[in-house]
Design a protein that fits this description.
Helix 5 runs parallel beside helix 6, helix 8 crosses helix 9 and helix 11 packs parallel to helix 12. The chain is 37% helix and 17% strand. The strands form three sheets. The chain has an eight-stranded parallel β-sheet. It has a seven-stranded mixed β-sheet with strand order 9-10-13-14-15-16-17, with helices on one face. It has two domains: 253 residues, Metal-dependent hydrolases (TIM Barrel), CATH 3.20.20.140; 192 residues, Aldolase class I (TIM Barrel, Alpha-Beta Barrel), CATH 3.20.20.70. Helix 1 links the parallel strand 1 and strand 2.
Length: 461
């Protein structure tokens, strides 16, 4: 696990810093200690250079903006370049709660640091307090092409949408564990797994189980546990997801295991089978082509493996609650491989086999697949993502054109008729007609599930 925002170079750690660093080296993959002005950033670099897994960020906090100007551009760049342990710019941003620097100075110094981050191809760590609307506007107009992290996100919808539209990462601190912060926890549903980070902001903001004590990097585990509990996945899943994301954003080296293309991958006690990158649909909200790492796994296949490779990796499928054909693309694009693996799964005593599909399997294969898969598949989860044909064609954009809608509806009816469990699903995208979707599910007499809309890019794009 990686604490993406700490201040272990602060005076609060003067008495036991070496012990804290040893603890970090034993229990964490990395810690980023974050500077608040140039002198403070020098201290951060010094601490980072004393440890194999502590890194530094160099920047000027909005509280300190009044002490700097654009003339300090070169000084800041020089300090960043002075050490290979510097992995980010910041923390920088806008703080209209304390207003310790004039607003115009805050904007000036923040924009300067964004330009430096772009120039040096580093992420910027963004501080925002009582300035969500202004920060959202700034991100929309000034941060195109800049990687970054919204540090200690506090739940503002406008800021979240602007940040995700520009590809920024969202970092949750110990405040997400506080009982009264239910609205903040709700925002977790809308953050793509590939953009999620955790932090402590130590020595401040101790999570609920240790509230009132000085915070420290290893307490980031409490935040991760709360997020896992809320999202109903395992702690190990959040550990993997946030560690991979932190390495990606800070350009830290991934291990060979982390880089590996995943043919199969586990989330909770379910196993997922990733057959292909290909899909006949081009959904407006889809992550394909935008993100390769989903749920902490690299799902972008550069080849199409044979069935035996999946069997070799799965080994004993009976230990999982469910095995699901679901990956980067549409499973029916590799129909024969799907069938071969499904037969083997049943032979090996798999409890339940599900296919997550767009429902165009019969158009893809030219076959009546619901009859052929009888006894091999238990459940079809069909991503229809609309309640009517017009919305479907605009949002899903299938390559088969207008005949796709009837093909999906026919597939659902046939699957239900053949005795499969059938669930239709939809992402609650900006143009989603929820009433039509529920009405359609009732007419088809099937279960339905509506998934939160997770932004990967601007909807208009």
């Amino acid at each position: 696990m990686i604490d993406t925002h700490a201040h272990i170079h602060f005076p609060q750690f003067d008495e036991d810093r070496e012990q804290i660093i040893r603890e970090c080296e034993e229990k964490l993959d990395a810690v980023v200690t974050v500077g608040c002005d140039l002198e403070d950033s020098k201290k951060a670099i010094k601490v980072a250079e004393s440890s194999k897994n502590v890194y530094a960020s160099v920047g000027i906090h909005p509280h300190e903006a009044k002490n700097y100007s654009e003339k300090d551009y070169d000084r800041l760049v020089e300090l960043i370049k002075s050490s290979s342990r510097v992995v980010a710019v910041g923390e920088a941003g806008l703080d209209f709660y304390r207003n310790l620097s004039p607003k115009n100075k805050q904007y000036e110094i923040f924009e300067m640091q964004v330009e430096i981050a772009k120039q040096l191809n580093l992420p910027i760590i963004i501080h925002t307090r009582n300035a969500a609307k202004e920060m959202a506007a700034f991100i929309k107009t000034k941060m195109a092409g800049c990687k970054g992290i919204v540090h200690c996100f506090s739940g503002e919808k406008e800021l979240l949408e602007a940040a995700l539209d520009e590809g920024l990462f969202i970092s949750y601190s110990g405040i997400v564990t506080y009982p009264k912060n239910s609205q903040l926890r709700e925002t977790l549903r809308y953050v793509p797994s590939s953009r999620l980070l955790v932090e402590t902001d130590c020595p401040y903001l101790s999570p609920q189980p240790v509230r009132g004590k000085r915070n420290k990097p290893t307490y980031v585990a409490y935040t991760a546990m709360e997020i896992a509990k809320f999202l109903k996945i395992n702690f190990t899943d959040i550990d993997r997801i946030t560690t991979i994301n932190a390495k990606r954003v800070f350009h830290l080296p991934l291990t060979a295991e982390e880089k590996k293309e995943r043919l199969v991958y586990q989330v909770g006690n379910k196993l997922y089978i990733n057959l292909t990158n290909k899909c006949p649909c081009n959904c407006k909200f889809c992550f394909r082509g935008t993100e390769n790492f989903i749920l902490g796994y690299n799902l972008n296949l550069t080849r199409e493996p044979i069935a035996e490779e999946y069997m070799y990796r799965i080994k004993n499928p009976s230990i999982y609650d469910e095995v699901v054909f679901c990956g980067y693309g549409e499973p029916f694009e590799r129909y024969e491989t799907l069938k071969t693996v499904a037969k083997w799964l049943k032979k090996m005593g798999t409890k339940k086999v599900r296919v997550d599909t767009c429902g165009l399997g019969n158009l893809i294969t030219g076959k009546d697949t619901t009859k052929e898969l009888k006894g091999l598949i238990d459940t079809f989860s069909i991503s229809i993502n609309a309640g009517n044909k017009e919305e479907y064609l605009k949002t899903v954009r299938p390559k088969f054109g207008e005949k796709s809608w009837n093909a999906v509806i026919d597939f659902i009816k046939e699957a239900k008729k053949e005795g499969y469990e059938v669930i239709i699903t939809a992402v609650e995208h900006p143009q989603f007609n929820k009433d039509d979707f529920i009405k359609l599910a009732n007419e088809l007499d099937v279960k339905y599930r509506i998934r939160p809309f997770k932004r990967f890019k601007k909807w208009e794009e």
